[in-house]
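User: For my dataset I need records formatted as: sequence, then structure tokens, nothing else. Please produce one.
Assistant:
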Amino acid sequence: MSQRYLGENLVFIISQPRSGSTLLQRVLAGNDAVVASSEPWLMLHPVYGLRDKGITADYSADWALQGVKEFLEIYTDGPEVYDDGIRAFAQAIYSNAIRRGGGNWFIDKTPRYLMIVDDLVRLFPKAKFIFLLRNPLSVLASIVNSQISHDLSTLERFRLELLDGPAAMLKGMEKLDDDAIVVRYEEFVTAPEKHTRRICDEIGLTYQDGMVDYSNAPPLEGFMQDRVGIHSRSRPTGDSLDSWQQLLTDAQQVHFAQSYLRSLGRQTVEKLGYSFDELNEAVCAAAEHAPGKVTLEWQVALLNPHQMKGMDHLAVNSYRYTLNHGPLMARLKTFLSFWWSLGKQIQWVFGKNDVFKP
């Protein structure tokens, strides 16, 4: 086989969703040598192809996994051949995008790559990895207030990124050591020129004047991108540094903020570079006088529909009724929903619709 492709022209931005990765990408894409796109999600499918969970398919993913593993073991030199296949796949597609874009580097900004950081580092040891960190409560606030539009019952879509993402980033940073390019959102937006110069130096790019002003840069095409916040400004600003305090305005969101801090734990928060005590103290102080009440528990909001039991579904329905119809109507709808659900379960147990008939 010809020389392996090891990601010599790739830059991966590794971050949680709503961490400012689109902003950082747009700034770096202001360099003539850089090609970027909306989130490609390109490497997730091939990497997950050899995982025994986390992927489903019409053709039975478990059988496919067994077939591929047996083939690699019996008829090839082993799993490393599959890795080389992924590298060849990546080289063909990324290089084509670079050629069409007229640059030398491609920036892949896909927040879900948190789930495959170890694999990307192993597959592409010559790629550059930027780890973009942000105050975890700011991440949560942005997901709640922007990404899911205050519908907390849909938070489970971000469960892995919220709970496992920080640890995955820390592990990747530790593995790469001095080769990891670490950027904190708060520092970047406060001094964008300074940090853009540093990032360019670490990648091997020549800094170009005007990179931080992306107002004249052509917009990225594609659905998978931030279509709101990035267009409201023309350069990085510190306007959203205190956005996490939006979580302190009512009891429900305060409960989520407290639960998220507890889920991450002191060690993870402080390894990310933030003060656990300061954040926790602010949240605890808000809990004493925050209006409203908790109608949806954190642990329930993080369950996907297949994990939910009867009372979990009822809790989610009650929350949605409250959100859409107010507390009084929500009680009535929840009461009716409970008895309807109970009736359906009884029918299922007895296997008849006429179970109550004489």
